[in-house]
User: Fold this.
Amino acid sequence: MGIYTQVWEKHEEALTEFLEALKLDPGSAEAYKGIGQAYYDLGSLDRASQAFIRAVCLAPELLDCVPDKLALKVRQGVSRVRGRI
Assistant:
């Protein structure tokens, strides 16, 4: 549902739905990706970056979904997280 809400530009609703999805499946890379996109669309770039970092750590192929404006920051964040593991 969150994806459709984003398409209709109801970003707050999409964020709420993705956060609810994350409660049901805390390891969902797709939920983190959706949260990141919703925060990005709302202009909250730091929160978006953090959500995208979590998504990419869980599913590296999702790096292609990160907006160009955040790609470098997300790559650096993923490297830092992986360096701690």
Q: What stands out?
A: The chain has a mean pLDDT of 90. The chain is about 75% helix and 0% strand.
